[in-house]
Structure formats: structure tokens, C-alpha cells
Design a protein that fits this description.
The structure is a single chain. Among the domains are: 39 residues; 257 residues, Beta-galactosidase, Chain A, domain 5, CATH 2.70.98.70. It is globular, with a radius of gyration of 26 Å. Helices cover 40% and strands 17% of the residues. The strands form 4 sheets. Strands 9-10-11-12-19-16-15-14 form an 8-stranded antiparallel β-sheet, with helices on one face. Strands 3-4-5-6-7 form a 5-stranded antiparallel β-sheet, covered by helices on one side. A 4-stranded antiparallel β-sheet has the order 8-13-18-17, with no helix packed on it. The protein starts with a helix and ends with a helix. It is an alpha+beta fold and 698 residues long. A hairpin with a 7-residue loop joins strand 17 and strand 18. The chain has 21 helices and 19 strands.
Length: 698
């Protein structure tokens, strides 16, 4: 069964015989490497750091003095110039600083800190249990890492225990130590790190199962090394253990690279980024130059492969776009600081990635969670909710000296200080405020944003990702997000969880959870509940036309996911944004054969008051601002059903939402029109409705 599912996962889409042969040969080599690795477990865990000869022969005290005095290589400026950054942290972010120190004290006193969207979790009173699943209580075994079965159907979720073991809370402890100079933070850091090493022998257990996790942990530890380098607990023995741990991490990543000749993803990208950072920041290690060269070469190769020409990530996911943008942005900055030249074409592509974020972020400053989002971050200065992407714009604005990336009424984010240092903050503040984003098309991504001022609609015509082999796409072809007057009214539901509950995983990526059409209760793309990271690509959305001018935007697209039915159906959707009258007109056209049951849904954001009014209008109201979104349809004879659903803005959290669903049995061709009208308290609602009804009758 495992062989069948693995083959199905790898060989989706069109694969040439040559690539199939290369992939088969790679997998044979991987099996052989795993056999050798399994036979060397004890040796791998005891292996001391493999230092270059000139560092291996000096005294331990001199090696520590070397690390404390070296000026090259340079880490990110905020960490490198830690004393000044600590001063600026208190000056620029006084409230966040108080929260940071309170947070760090909770880590010390209770071993409690926030974990993804689950809120604060506690991980052991006396000592942190690093292999205990915080959700189910299951203790992951210390088996050989490749033997670990990640999908257990018992409520456990490897993604959650991995987040714990990325050790990003060490950055919070380090920043608190830099600000206060209180040794309770440094003592706690070194104690937890020692306990982690004891509980996680090299290449054994869930925390070595995924090379991506090893890489992200290594980079967080590099930041922690910078923050605690001058702590009294950092003696010769502590440095020796640190270097041993870094060498073990780098060697493990290199042995277990998540590369495929068929398709790579954020996993392989994180692997090579980890090698680049370890190789660049630890030239004292024997393998450093090899890791650095491999990491840089593959980083740029993966930018060519994984970032589309319009700047979007190729996994059909805004959540993973955020993660990749962080990896590329921070890595390019690190390379620049250390004299590594990166070709201008790659900087241009990175700029396009930030431009994509600027385009899709809603007027309320948050991002639509298209496709999967596990809320993962790279080198997290602070925990950000899964739909919080705007801080990247602040860092991007300073790096590229681009006013357009400076969001209106937005302060400099903390990441700006710690990634770029004092100069980054100064450069950001010197930028004038750029113009507001306008309607924009990203045809390679299949993302179309129809917007003006605070009116925003995102139209999704993306495939399932990675040329039809994606793991993180959803059944969201031709779906929409709508925001107006500062309220996100119609939203993508997000992801919620991955493997702890396969039914919930299935629901959040299903057609019925998205604001699009469904035929005969079937999925747009084939998905199976038991295969949480496989999705078909039958829908293959195709954009027929896109036009944008000062008066209106129009997008027309269709998908073919239901052409596989015995009586095939094609769904075409046309969306027009009238910028003068401030409404959206949606035309749904179904063509093909036979009689079918058609369902059309609009998935509303949590916290809204949803009503099906007697005048055949569905209204979504924001009780705080008074803003409303009204949906009218051309078929007033069909009464909508308000369905109880959920939305997730952060991995592990979910909020009650409502979806309005119109179900119609009809032969084809069938045509249905919707008008979406935003209204605020100062608007004349009857006048707006008169215009909308005029559109339906024309």
C-alpha cells in the first residue's frame, strides 16, 4: 500500500520516460544511503564537530575567543548588532517589548508558549518533553527517522510537534536576554538545548524525519548562537556541543535532501537554504564550503523552478508563497552582507514575489489563504498568524527602496529591525508613501485581483500546483474572495489541520467549502480523504479573457473538472467589477450534457451576521462597522440554504462560519447571474439595490 501511494504521489501528471528512469535510480540510491545511515546511528550521534584543520588544532578557549571576536561572516544586522537592536526594540516597539519579555518569562517559569493557532501550550513542568505530541499526548518513538509513520489516525499531528522542535522560541528567549541581560533567559536556553540534544539523538525520531524541519531548526539555532554568544553559560564545552549539533544538522540534511527529478517543493528549498546558511555562517566546519556552494546553486535553481514568471509560488498557495518569500529574501540579504553576488535577474524575481504579496493582501492588511497554509515561518522574529503577510512588505520596501511596498498607516514591523538592523528602519522611514494597489493580473499563477480603494475581489483560476503534481492546492477553481469597507466578507476557508483529522483536512480543501460552483456533489479535482497531500488536476482552469481599465475590470474563465462525469459539464464564470457604481456582477454558465444538481456557494468570514432576507437577498453584516454585503441572484425562485461551516486563519484554529448555498436542478445549458453589492452606513441602500436589480434584468 505504501509503495502504491508513493508511486501515485510521485508520478502524477505527464512524466517523460527519461525523468521516470532518473527518479527510479535516485530512489534506489536513497535506499542504499538509508541502509548505511541506519547502520551508523550510534556513530553519527557521537561524532564530534568536523572542524577544519586550523581550528581543530587550537585550544578550546581560543576557539571560543575566535567566535566572539570574529567580524566575518556577518549574520543579519539586527542579530549581529544585538546591543543596538535591543535598544531600538524598546524605543520603537515598547508595547511589543513588554509582551516579549512576559512571553519569555512564561517560557522560563512554566515551559509554556504559543504554538501556531492552538494558542499557548505547556510542554512539561520540570523539563520539556520534545517528542510528546501536544495535541494527542502521543510520544513519538525514537526509531530510525525514515521508519516513522507520520499519519497515525489517532489525533497526533507531526506538523505540530515539528513546530515545537523548530525551536523558534529560542529567538524570543534570546531577544529578551539581549534587552534585559537577565541570566534566567540564558540559563533556560542552555538547559533546554541540552535536554533537546539528549532526547533527540541524531537521525532518530520524528524530529529528524524531515530534512526541511532539520534545516529550519538549524537556522533558528544560528540566530540563537548569535544572541547568546556572550552569555556566561557559553563556555568551551557549550561551544563544542553547539558546533557538534550544527555539523550533525548539516550532514543530516545533505544525506536526506528532499529532491526529486519529477517535482520539488518548499521542502527541498528549505533543505538547500539550510545548507547555505550553515555553510556561510560556519566556515570553521570542514563541510562548510561544500554546503555553501551546493546551497547557493540549488537556491537559485529552485527560484527558477518554483517561482513563476509573474512572481507567484508554483504550489497554488499564498501560505507557502509567504514562506518561500521569507527564505529567498532573508537568504539574499545574508549573501549580500557576505559579498556573494546574486545576478540581477534573481533580485528582479524576488521583487516580483514581494509585488505579488502587495497585490493579494486585502485592504484590511491580511492575506487570502488560497490553498494550504500551515502558518510556517522562516526565522520568525515573532509569531505571525497564517494570514498575516504584510510584514514582508515592510522588509521588502527597505531592501528594494520601493515606496509602493510601504503599506498606508502601517508602522515598521519588528522583522525590519532584526533582519536589516537600524539602517533598515531608517531606510523604511525615509520612503514616501506609495500609491494604493490597483487591479492586477497574475496569469501564470491564475490569480486576478479586481480592486479599487477599499473594494477588493480576488478571482482564483489556479491549477492544483507544481504542474498538476501539487500537494497544497484546494478545490477552489473560479472561487472568489470579497472585501469591502475594511471587512473581509467572502473568504477562502484556509486549511485548519493536516493529518490529525483527515476528515477535517478533506473538508477544508473541498469544493463545498469554497465560493464556486459544484456539480452533482462531486469534487472539481479528485481527492481522497485517506491521501491528505494528493489532489488531482482535472479542473485545469483556463482564462479566456482579462480586461482592466479605469471604469471596470472583467475576467472570464472556465474549468473542466466536471468533464469526467458520465454527462460532462464545463463551468464558465465571468466577473465584472464596476468601479463607478461599486459592485461586482458574476455570470455562471454551465454547458455540456444532461440534467444535474448545481450548487453555488459563498463562504462568509467568521463573526459576520448572515441573513436570508424575505426579498430574496442574502446579507452579510459586520456588526461593529455596520458595513454589509448584499448578494442578489437572477433566479429568485430558489431559496438559499445557510450552511454551518468553518474558517481557519491560523493552522490549528477554526472559527464558525456560514456559507450561503443555492441548489438548482436543471438541464444544461444553464445560466445564473449574481450581483454583489457592498453597502456602508452612509450609503443609500435602496439606490444601490435598484442599480443591482437593473443589472439582473438587463
Amino acid at each position: 500500500m505504501k509503495l502504491i501511494s508513493t508511486t501515485k504521489r510521485v508520478l502524477r501528471g505527464e512524466v517523460s520516460p527519461r525523468l521516470a528512469a532518473l527518479e527510479a535510480a535516485r530512489r534506489v540510491r536513497l535506499l542504499n544511503r538509508r541502509r548505511r545511515e541506519r547502520s551508523q546511528l550510534a556513530e553519527l550521534d557521537l561524532q564530534p564537530a568536523r572542524l577544519r584543520e586550523e581550528f581543530a588544532r587550537i585550544r578550546a578557549s581560543d576557539l571560543l575567543a575566535h567566535f566572539r571576536s570574529r567580524v566575518k561572516p556577518e549574520f543579519l544586522p539586527g542579530f549581529q548588532e544585538v546591543t543596538r537592536s535591543a535598544e531600538l526594540q524598546q524605543e520603537l516597539f515598547p508595547q511589543r517589548t513588554v509582551q516579549l519579555i512576559d512571553h519569555a518569562r512564561r517560557i522560563v517559569s512554566e515551559h509554556c508558549w504559543p504554538l501556531l493557532g492552538f494558542g499557548e501550550k505547556c510542554f512539561g513542568k520540570e523539563a520539556v518533553d520534545w517528542n510528546r505530541d501536544p495535541l494527542s499526548g502521543f510520544s513519538w518513538p525514537l526509531d530510525f527517522h525514515a521508519d516513522i509513520n507520520l499519519i497515525r489516525n489517532d489525533g497526533s499531528d507531526a506538523r505540530v510537534v515539528w513546530e515545537l522542535n523548530r525551536l523558534s522560541h529560542f529567538i524570543a528567549l534570546g531577544r529578551a536576554y539581549a534587552i534585559t541581560n537577565e541570566d534566567i533567559f540564558s540559563k533556560e536556553f542552555f538547559q533546554q538545548l541540552n535536554e533537546w540534544r539528549v532526547q533527540n539523538p541524531t537521525a532518530r525520531g520524528v524530529n529528524w524525519n524531515c530534512a526541511m524541519e532539520v534545516a529550519l531548526r538549524a537556522i533558528n539555532l544560528l540566530a540563537a548562537l548569535q544572541l547568546f554568544l556572550r552569555a556566561p553559560e557559553m563556555d568551551e564545552v557549550a561551544l563544542k556541543d553547539f558546533l557538534k549539533l550544527f555539523d550533525q544538522h548539516g550532514a543530516h540534511i545533505q544525506r536526506n535532501l528532499e529532491f526529486s527529478h519529477i517535482a520539488n517543493s518548499n521542502h527541498y528549498l528549505a533543505d538547500v537554504v539550510g545548507l547555505l546558511w550553515l555553510g556561510l555562517m560556519l566556515p570553521e566546519l570542514q563541510a562548510a564550503s561544500e554546503w555553501r556552494e551546493l546551497g547557493l546553486r540549488e537556491l537559485l535553481r529552485e527560484m527558477d523552478q518554483q517561482i513563476l514568471p509573474d512572481g507567484a509560488d508554483n504550489e497554488a498557495s499564498t501560505g507557502y508563497h509567504r514562506l518561500k518569500a521569507e527564505m529567498f529574501l532573508y537568504s539574499f540579504v545574508l549573501c549580500h552582507l557576505n559579498g556573494i553576488d546574486i545576478e540581477e535577474k534573481y533580485w528582479s524575481k524576488l521583487r516580483a514575489m514581494i509585488e505579488y504579496v502587495r497585490a493579494y493582501v486585502r485592504p484590511d492588511g491580511y492575506a487570502p489563504l488560497i490553498g494550504d497554509s500551515d502558518s510556517g515561518q522562516f526565522l520568525p522574529v515573532g509569531q505571525r498568524r497564517g494570514d498575516d503577510h504584510s510584514y514582508l512588505l515592510g522588509v521588502g520596501a527597505a531592501v528594494f527602496q520601493e515606496p509602493h511596498f510601504k503599506v498606508a498607516q502601517s508602522d515598521a514591523p519588528e522583522e525590519l529591525l532584526w533582519v536589516l538592523g537600524e539602517r533598515g528602519v531608517r531606510d523604511y522611514r525615509a520612503l514616501t508613501q506609495g500609491e494604493a494597489p490597483v487591479s492586477q493580473a497574475f496569469p501564470h499563477a491564475g490569480t486576478y485581483v479586481l480592486r479599487q480603494d477599499d473594494m477588493y475581489l480576488l478571482f482564483n483560476a489556479s491549477e492544483s500546483g507544481i504542474d498538476g503534481r501539487g500537494s497544497h492546492g484546494h478545490n477552489d477553481a473560479l472561487s472568489i474572495e470579497v472585501s469591502a469597507y475594511g471587512t473581509a466578507f467572502i473568504i477562502d476557508p484556509g486549511s485548519y489541520i493536516y493529518t490529525s483529522n483527515l476528515r477535517e483536512r478533506h473538508l477544508f480543501r473541498s469544493t463545498a467549502y469554497h465560493s464556486t460552483g459544484q456539480v452533482d456533489g462531486q469534487e472539481q479535482n479528485t481527492i481522497e480523504e485517506s491521501l491528505p497531500f494528493i489532489i488531482g488536476n482535472e479542473a485545469r482552469p483556463h482564462v479566456l479573457s482579462w480586461e482592466s481599465n479605469d471604469d471596470e475590470d472583467t475576467i472570464v474563465a472556465e474549468h473542466y473538472g466536471y468533464c469526467r462525469l458520465p454527462q460532462p459539464i464545463t463551468h464558465r464564470r465571468r466577473v465584472r467589477f464596476d468601479k463607478q457604481q461599486r459592485f461586482w456582477l458574476i455570470d455562471d454558465e454551465l454547458t455540456g450534457e444532461g440534467k444535474h444538481e448545481f450548487s453555488f456557494r459563498f463562504h462568509f468570514g467568521p463573526g459576520l451576521e448572515i441573513t436570508a432576507r424575505p426579498d430574496a437577498i442574502v446579507a452579510a453584516g459586520d456588526k461593529i462597522s455596520g458595513a454589509r454585503l448584499l448578494i442578489l441572484t437572477s433566479d429568485v425562485a430558489v431559496q438559499p440554504e445557510l450552511e454551518a461551516q468553518f474558517s481557519s486563519r491560523d493552522y490549528g484554529s477554526k472559527d464558525v462560519s456560514v456559507s450561503a448555498c443555492w441548489t438548482i436542478e436543471s438541464t444544461v445549458p444553464m445560466h445564473l447571474t449574481w450581483v454583489i453589492v457592498p453597502v456602508c452606513n452612509r450609503d443609500d441602500e435602496p439606490a444601490h439595490l435598484a442599480i443591482a436589480r437593473g443589472q439582473l434584468s438587463s
